[in-house]
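Course assignment 3, question 2. Fill in each field.
Student: A.L.
Task: Predict the tertiary structure for the chain below.
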Amino acid sequence: MKKTISVLPLMMAIGAIILTVSCRNEEIVTFRSLLREISQTDAATRFPDPAYHLVQFSSYDRLSIHPDSAGWFANNDFTQFIREEDNDGRHEYVMFEADGPGAVVRWWMTFGDMNASNSFIRVYIDNQPEPVIEGPAPYLVGGMMLAPEPLSTSVSPLTDPQRRGYNLYLPLPFSENCKITLENDSIMISPERRSPSIYYNICARLYEEGTRLVSFKKEMLSDDSLSIAACASSLGRTGVPEPQHALKDSVSGIYSPGEACRFTIDRGPGAIAGLSVRINAVDTASALRHTFIIISFDGQETINIPAGNFFGTGYSYNRYRTHFSGVGPDGTMYSSWLMPFRDSCHVSILNSTVDTMQITAGLTTVPYSWNKSSMYFGATWHEYKAIETAGSESTGGTGRHIDLNIATLYGKGIYAGDAVTVFNSADAWWGEGDEKIYVDDEIFPSSFGTGTEDYFGYAWCRPEPFSHALIAQPAGNGNFHPGMTVNMRYRVLDAIPFVDSIKADIELWHWVNTVIDYGITAYYYLEYED
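Answer field:
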């Protein structure tokens, strides 16, 4: 039997393919577009398009190969490289190497001594023999050689430069591949020893195949200087710029135990752009620990967290300022995460203490264009109360450290940051632990770090407080001695997308066997089924 073929469906199919390719090709990733993304207040609220997978290259101890391996908690997280090679007569150590399309989006380093600091960095893009960027490591990463603060910074300014963490958030896109090397004539590597101590974490986006991308070139630093300055200025501000039609609500009153200060917004679509809370109570620590921030969007509760943890101040008022949160001089705590909703949102500030308290709160909402890629903001909180640490074998401990879960999320979303509140009980450092983040079906984490303070952007367990646009240590009293430490890290270009699930862990790696309290907050955006 003779078959006939209809031309119309075939032409429609071809047209659909052409339209799909055409629409996709309109999305071009460039140095300038990545700078704009940092500044776009609603970027994190929508699932990334074009899609990417976030990976991290670091100097983690290569003995860590599997959770069941003896080296899973190995701690020689320094001077570890992919390989050594000779380039134009130079002996270079490869720190990072990935095929494109992609972009380096976050970079952290620290150095154990002057020999380690005398390291020279080169960035090679798209198989070119000459580096597009080169320079002394501390200045290139955190010394504002490539960009102004807060895109490039070393923290804390109160800390000796030799003990600081160096951070770079300037994006470096590459279409074919990227290789980052380090040159240092002092490096000695043997089975028994590695020196000097050079630590690094480099995060990169790896876009799906077919993504159109324009590679970084050296001239862009001057040609796009205005875009760099505008991005730095935007990142340095706190929160979302308020349009003239932003709506503000405020409540102040005396609340008995079990009562709540409440806001109800039913004029969606919109987004919470700011939430501020000030609590006056007889027992400040109890108030910050037992006053809960509870928020639901379109009938879905996504936040139920103690105020001190949600706002990143712990259980005392510690003044600090980041792009997404802070505490003012009068103790007012504020959050400026953009939290969208389609129809309505409900905010409660619940007094769960045994005392009456005064609560003064403010809420700012702005218009928001909800679409199919929009997601809800959420935050989880875990408290590991009176948890026993293993301690190092060299200090009489067992060395049997454990992984603590920061958060495990299911569904489609992005991981946007986290914070810890730790009560240390000993004269020893509590945070040797590395972060381990598994995305979707990963067996080995795509992000494996080098230490807790490294993950939060500082170094050498220094106690000095600092505030930065995306990282902060409002309190560091517990770093070397009994007391409280609060650390936080927020993600912009280094936000981690996941399609099915994400599991974020961090090692509980304390130098001595003792008991501590460890509270962990995670911030994210997530799709919820209707």
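Instructor remarks: Confidence is low (pLDDT under 50) at residues 1-25. The two ends are 49 Å apart (CA to CA).
Grade: pending
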